[in-house]
Amino acid sequence: KYEKPDGSPVFIAFRSSTKKSVQYDDVPEYRDRLSLSENYTLSISNARISDEKRFVCMLVTEDNVFEAPTIVKVFKQPSKPEIVSQAPFLETEQLKKLGDCISKDSYPDGNITWYRNGKVLQPLEGVVVLIFKKQMDPVTQLYTMTSSLEYKATKADIQMPFTCSVTYYGPSGQKTLQSEQAIFDIYYPTEQVTIQVLPSKNAIKEGDNITLKCLGNGNPPPEEFLFYLPGQPEGIRSSNTYTLTDVRRNATGDYRCSLIDKKSMIASTAITVHYLDLSLNPSGEVTKQIGDALPVSCTISASRNATVVWMKDNIRLRSSPSFSSLHYQDAGNYVCETALQDVEGLKKRESLTLIVEGKPQIKMTKKTDPSGLSKTIICHVEGFPKPAIQWTITGSGSVINQTEESPYINGRYYSKIIISPEENVTLTCTAENQLERTVNSLNVSAISIPEHDEADEISDENREKVNDQAKLIVGIVVGLLLAALVAGVVYWLYMKKSKTASKHVNKDLGNLEENKKLEENNHKTEA
């Protein structure tokens, strides 16, 4: 039997020691749930909360009735606790509901505990507020426990895990179930503003686009700012970026940005827009006459030190060109190129195409072949544009076409003919360009008549070699003269020293002779 709360008995099962049969009373709540074994063990299947009561085993004999009671306790493990109704974010310095920790279907009821980073959260006025409640299902008689947490967050709570646990009782004692972690986004106000320049402010040049980016260290970061441009007291409201296009050098200055609702929180940066100006004078195509002077200047104006390189016909020059007296070899394409150090892409260049013109100049030379069978006549021509050369024989007027010409280099070249004249002739060399026509003649004796050869024209390259050889010879001569001078000085010093020594020797010898004469006189006197 079991006892009702008021103490009245309810019989549920009977078994006789003499009969094998078992009798079950018609008790609805235990219908089909009871089993009484031969050793008088009562089993209840599908335990319910309502089974928690006082059961009594009665032994009935002819003489007496014996009773042995027991109290049955029923336990139900709750569900794993969950943090529900989680706040999308927490704000610093504001008490806000973080969430609810809920655990269902427990018997008996349990307790819920909150944790921050594994440490128990204790109630603290204005910082940690815990509200606990439990509900029992009238049908199942199981409990649902709920604990709400209100929490004032700080920046230290960024990425901090929050958990909760339920503590309940089972047949073996107290047990605990832990929830999953919950991490909350912590909102906090901006405390500092910074400004960035894109691209890097060390490499901004005229024509670039500049993007100013303003950042606040709050969460969430501010979405709008005020941007202050150089010389403009009023800020420009914009998102966290502000772009200036095609900047010029006058955009150099201090740029600032601030919060819209807190203008005192401001950041600034200095920007230099680099520039590079180049002026070449003269420039373009310039035509000058040989021997003229031509000053050339390449003027640079830049925001910082710039490198300057001169090129002539794609070959780098050691220094800037300057012409006090132009030569044909000075003609060419000159380029003045400058670049700003550490500023990529900032380069300027100007070019000068120099043309050196000159009227044709002629010099004729002749040379007899060592065999004596022919003579070589050369017409050396100088001028620009390139003069055309024509050979004629004076008198007959016939033109000589079988000639040999050298390459035209630096305004010079020559035309050469080889003849074997049987009689004296006069050869005429005519050189003509757009500026003038020049004529020169040379008398050539017959091959049978010996004559003095004229020296060939020395080329620029050979002239330089001759000059180098002359310098070498002068250097050797000067060296020999210096050596002779040094030898002469040494010899003079040696002779001077020798004469002095000779005088001392003669003086000593004279003294010896005088002493001998005195001794002889003394001997004579004594005798």
Automatic annotation (TrEMBL):
One of its GO terms (cellular component) is axon. Residues 69-178, 189-272, 291-353, 360-445 form the Ig-like domain. InterPro entries: CD80_C2-set (IPR013162), Ig-like_dom (IPR007110), Ig-like_dom_sf (IPR036179), Ig-like_fold (IPR013783), Ig_sub (IPR003599), Ig_sub2 (IPR003598), Surface_Rcpt/Adhesion_Mol (IPR051116). CDD domains: Ig. One of its GO terms (biological process) is cell adhesion. It holds the Pfam family C2-set_2. SUPFAM superfamilies: Immunoglobulin (SSF48726). Keywords: Adaptive immunity, Cell adhesion, Cell membrane, Cell projection, Disulfide bond, Glycoprotein, Immunity, Immunoglobulin domain, Membrane, Repeat, Transmembrane, Transmembrane helix. The chain crosses the membrane at residues 472-494. Homodimer. Interacts (via extracellular domain) with CD6 (via extracellular domain). Homodimerization and interaction with CD6 involve the same region and cannot occur simultaneously. The affinity for CD6 is much higher than the affinity for self-association. Interacts (via glycosylated extracellular domain) with LGALS1 and LGALS3. Interaction with LGALS1 or LGALS3 inhibits interaction with CD6. This is CD166 antigen. The lineage of its organism: Eukaryota, Metazoa, Chordata, Craniata, Vertebrata.
